[in-house]
TrEMBL record:
Signal peptide: none annotated. This is UPF0029 domain-containing protein. Belongs to the IMPACT family. Residues 88-197 form the Impact N-terminal domain. One of its GO terms (cellular component) is cytoplasm.
C-alpha cells in the first residue's frame, strides 16, 4: 500500500472508533478494511486496462463535508479520540484534530457531536489555535469554550500555548457521574488533553 492509502485507513479506523465509543469496533474495522482493499484492487485493475488516450480532465464534485471559502476549500478534519479516564463515576475523553481555520473547527465540532453519546455529555470543552503565514506575516487565531465547566476552556488554550501546539483543535468531553471532583476535574481535563496532543504529534510543532 502507498503511504497515502495507509493514512486513509488510519483516519477511517479512528473515525469508526470515535463514532462507536464504548462499543466493540473490531468487526467494523475488519469490514472497512475488506471494503477498502477491494476498492484499491478494483481501481488498480481499471488503471491497468485503461488504453493510452493521453491526458484527460476529470470533474471532481465537492463533498458535503467541505465548505468553499474565498481563499480555499475547507475540508472536514480527521478527529482522533483518546482512551477514557474514570474518576468517581465521572468519565473524561479527549479528541484532537488538525485544523487551519475557524470553519474547519466548526466542521469538526459538528461532526464530533453527531455521536449521540458525546452530544449528550455534560461538557464538551474545547480550545483551538491556528497559525498561518500570509502575505509576509504570521496570522494567529484562537478561541476556547467552557461549555459550562467554568475556566476549563481557558486552561486548554493555555495548554496549547505552553506546548507550542498550533493548527489544532482539542476537545475534552466529560460525563458527570454525580460526585463533585473539585480541582481534580481540571487536572484530568488538562492531563488527558496533553496526552492526546503528544500521542498525535501536536506538541511543539
Amino acid at each position: 500500500l502507498l503511504e497515502s492509502q495507509k493514512l486513509n485507513i488510519k483516519h477511517a479506523l479512528n473515525e469508526l472508533y470515535g463514532n462507536n465509543i464504548g462499543q466493540p469496533v473490531l468487526y467494523e474495522w475488519i469490514a472497512h478494511l475488506k471494503s477498502y482493499l477491494a476498492e484499491c484492487a478494483e481501481s488498480s485493475s481499471r488503471e491497468a486496462k485503461r488504453p493510452n488516450e493521453g491526458p484527460c480532465v476529470v470533474a471532481t464534485a465537492i463533498p458535503d463535508t467541505a465548505l468553499l471559502t474565498t481563499d480555499r476549500l475547507v475540508r472536514l478534519p480527521t478527529i482522533i479520540s483518546s482512551n477514557t479516564i474514570l474518576d468517581r463515576r465521572s468519565t473524561f475523553q479527549a479528541h484532537v484534530a488538525e485544523v487551519f481555520s475557524k470553519e474547519e473547527v466548526i466542521l469538526a465540532l459538528n461532526k464530533l457531536k453527531e455521536n449521540n453519546k458525546i452530544a449528550r455529555a455534560t461538557h464538551n470543552i474545547y480550545a483551538w489555535l491556528t497559525e498561518e503565514f500570509v502575505k509576509g506575516r504570521w496570522i494567529r487565531q484562537h478561541d476556547c469554550d467552557d461549555d459550562g465547566e467554568i475556566g476549563a476552556g481557558a486552561k486548554l488554550l493555555n495548554l496549547l500555548e505552553l506546548m507550542k501546539a498550533k493548527n489544532v483543535l482539542v476537545v475534552v468531553t466529560r460525563w458527570y457521574g454525580g460526585i463533585h471532583l473539585g480541582p481534580d476535574r481540571f487536572r484530568h481535563i488538562c492531563n488527558i488533553a496533553r496526552q492526546a496532543l503528544v500521542d498525535n504529534g501536536f506538541s511543539g510543532r
